[in-house]
Amino acid sequence: MSTMRALGVAHAGATEWTGQIRVEMAVEDASGERFGRVIDFRIDPASVVAGGVGPASGVQHAPDLPTELSGRLRKTGYIKIADTRYFRRDFRYYATIDQVASIDASVVRLDRYCRDLITAFD
User: Which helix (H) or strand (E) holds 95?
Assistant: First the structure.
C-alpha cells in the first residue's frame, strides 16, 4: 500500500544538475541524514540540458504506485530511493526532481524530510 503526498512541478534550476544523478548514490534528507540510496530514476527529457543525461538514463520502469500518481511522477521525473536504515528490502521512497536541493559527486541532497516523500512497498 502506498502513501500519496503532494507533488511539485520541476523547476527551471533542476536542469543544472539532473545529469549528475547516478544509481547507487547516497541520499540525504533536509536534516542531513543519509537514509537511502538511488536505485532507479527517470528524468523528463524536456528538462535535460544539452550534453546532459537523456531520456534513456536510469531504468524506465513505472513506479509501483497508483496509475494517477505514477503518471505524474513520469511527467515530472523521479528518483526511486531504497531505505538503507532498516532491514526491510521492499520499502521505497520516491522524490520528484524538484525536491532535489543539490548533488555532489556521491550524494543527492533533498529539500524534504524522508517522512514527507512518496512511499511504496515493492
Answer: strand 91-96
